[in-house]
Amino acid sequence: MTKNTPMMEQYLKIKAEHQDAFLFFRLGDFYEMFFNDAIEAARELEITLTKRDSGKQEPIPMCGVPYHSAANYIKVLVDKGYKVAICEQVEDPKSAKGVVKREVIQLITPGTVMEKNMLNEKENNFIASLSHFNHSYVIVYSDLSTGENRLVLFENGWDAVLHELYHQPIKEIVISSDLPEGLQNQLRERLHVTLSYQDEVTFNAEYRSLCENLHDDRLLTSLSRLLNYIQYTQKRSLEHMQPAEIIHLSSYLSLDMYSKRNLELTETMMKKEKYGSLLWVLDKTVTAMGARMLKKWLERPLLNKQLIEERLEIVDRFYQQFMDRDDLRETLKSVYDLERLAGRIAFGNVNARDLLQLKESLSKVPRLKTILKQFSQPVVQNLADQFNYPEAVVDLLETSLVGDPPISIKEGGIIKDGYHQQLDTYRDASRNGKQWIAELERKEKEETNIKSLKVGYNRVFGYYIEVTKANLHLLPEGKYERKQTLTNAERYITPELKEKEQLILEAEEKSVELEYQLFIDIREKMKEHIPALQQLAEAVSYVDVLQGFATVSEANNYVRPTFVENQLSIEKSRHPVIEQVMKEGTFVPNDIVLNEDKSILLITGPNMSGKSTFMRQLALTVIMGQIGCFVPCASADLLLFDQIFTRIGAADDLVAGQSTFMVEMLEANHAISNATDRSLILLDEIGRGTSTYDGMALAQAIIEYIHNHIHAKTLFSTHYHELTDLEQTLPRLKNIHVRAEEYEGNVVFLHQIKEGAADESYGIHVAKLAELPPSLIERASSILQELEGTAKSQLSVQQSETAATEESGQLSFFIEEGKQKPKQHTTEESDIVRDLKDIDLFDMTPMDAMNELYRLQKKLRK
Ligand code: ADP
Ligand code: MG
């Protein structure tokens, strides 16, 4: 076997250290990939796979992407959950002896992207770390683009960890390699995130300022795991990282993962879109920072009444003083994403245009302050005090940057005249030189009398004097030195011209270099203002979300809720999302009351009448209230709920498909084992995933359990009419139903909630609405009549399922398929089955097979 080339040796060595990433190996103007990386990248990026002759028997698979368009390819890979290691030449190839030195300068991973084109501006991009200790777990979230760090400690088990991680915008989770395999798989399968490993958890003193508030070793270890990983991948300053905030789960309304999904808070279940979600209705923010904050609030509504009231109070003010609010809104629109600008300043990837945006945004702050002061309440006026900004930044940017700089920071044209003396000198030199040249052209024209004589410039020959062939006779012999001959003209130089050229070029080169240096200095100076910018960003986001609440509350007629202790009572409650997609004024509002005495509402009513809608609108109203927004109804007395649990029965569970009865039971179990008397439970048609008796029995047992042991406020919808009898035995349960009326044999949905149980289920009416064939509808009606007779008697004598099957063929309708007895075959049929079994297909021609099939079918059809 031949030896590898030295460059290949270098490649293999670096690749060995980055097994889990695509290694982008810089070769001239390309990033090249080799071996398996090349094969996979060619497939994922749809680029051509080539080969590199290595002198070995086997050429090496290879593919590459141009340096200047690499960002797009990297984005494709990272979006797919891969990592990319960027390996650059770290010494000048001209001065290198042997192979140019190369190093990985950054690892771009799904959780650590910073590039604008890879981030969704309205969403955080979290990388998390998960650490396990004996029975506890710690999650740390970090958004590298904004510098936020948050910690959550879980003392009781793994389940809560999954519920927490679910539905967060997490792209990557960093774990220790000894996290049990089973748990790792759950993370991969349920959360679809990239898993990365970091076992080094020693604390780096550089991060001291981030964790002064952490007094628990578990928290420190977990934060170190994440920061070490980020340091390892990014290999640069993390100056914008903010002190870690500890999230105490008990301060927030907790939503289990099923609620997060079923209530469609930030995206719809089916299409995973914002359109149709609560966020879609509520998001009237005008800055990217505000949009991100709103999303965070929706994922963690508050539990602290004082904080909620403070938000509501501000919303109220914004609502009332709508002229000032409009003013505020308009001014906020020109505030750029300060939070991410601060992040990119720390990372050293802002250009002059970004800094101008920063200046522009900061210059709006005094105006924002004035507007806030115009509101009549101290809570709002106090907000103005947080609108401080580093004036030095604005001054510096104002004096240093030109109004319309280029994107590149390496080609000059960024810095204003008068900012730096040496730069001015270079610029003067080059301007004077150019003037001298213009003067020269004028003078030579006059002297030679050649009107078309001109002084030009190109990169190869520098400055030259050009005379067309037709005019050559006018030129005194030997006046200039001939340099180049073209078809129509001759080009000349003079020693004087070359001397000036030297000065001009040198001045230009130096000034471009100096401008770059000056820009880097300005960027460095910005770093000390990062904390101030972050604080301002926080204040801007807060005001933006709350003006958004006021705006949406006014547009949709929401009212300010009151938080009370005993009885939840909402008048004319509406579903915030469904009312938006319906024609205005067509949504039917309903009242709801829940208290100690009546804490469980059992909802019956035909399919499609609005049971699920009613249940969800309660949960959404609760959530809106607890994030500090007004709510969709005529008036609301709300209770502060600590947790919301939802379970949507299998038949209604749209995403399901894979949802089995087992999952339904697991979810119900999650609710009843975690709920308290301050929780809200929504159980929508539970028990539908199994046979009637089973389902009904479980549904009843679950209601009784909640009633007797948990005392959580509960809405339970069901199509089992039999359950309405529970009102007699469970004092805190109350029947309500959604009214429907029969009109000329058709059902009309009124969507009105009434007391008492529904009288019929109207399923067949719905089938009729769906235009099933009339004969089928008739048949169903008569089966129903028979069943109603039989089923009632069956229930009362409590016969077992098997007994029921044997006695009445009709009841097999209720019984799971697998339990049905096999149908008896006739002798004729048995013969045919035997014949079929005996056929040796491989011994037959297709025609023979056809004939045999024909014979068998004919026998059956006799
Ligand atoms: P159920 O759960 O009883 O089968 P849904 O709650 O799914 O019924 O409601 C079915 C449809 O009826 C909804 O998609 C909506 O279009 C309409 N609907 C429900 N509640 C109302 C209401 N209060 N006012 C107007 N339309 C409603
Ligand atoms: Mg329903």
From TrEMBL:
It holds the Pfam family MutS_I. This protein is involved in the repair of mismatches in DNA. It is possible that it carries out the mismatch recognition step. This protein has a weak ATPase activity. Residues 679-695 form the DNA mismatch repair proteins mutS family domain. One of its GO terms (molecular function) is damaged DNA binding. GO terms for cellular component: cytosol. Belongs to the DNA mismatch repair MutS family. HAMAP family: MutS (MF_00096). This is DNA mismatch repair protein MutS. The keyword Nucleotide-binding applies. GO terms for biological process: mismatch repair. InterPro entries: DNA_mismatch_repair_MutS, DNA_mismatch_repair_MutS-lik_N, DNA_mismatch_repair_MutS/MSH, DNA_mismatch_repair_MutS_C, DNA_mismatch_repair_MutS_clamp, DNA_mismatch_repair_MutS_core, DNA_mismatch_repair_MutS_N, DNA_mismatch_repair_MutS_sf. It comes from Virgibacillus massiliensis. Keywords: ATP-binding, DNA damage, DNA repair, DNA-binding, Nucleotide-binding. ATP binds at residues 605-612.
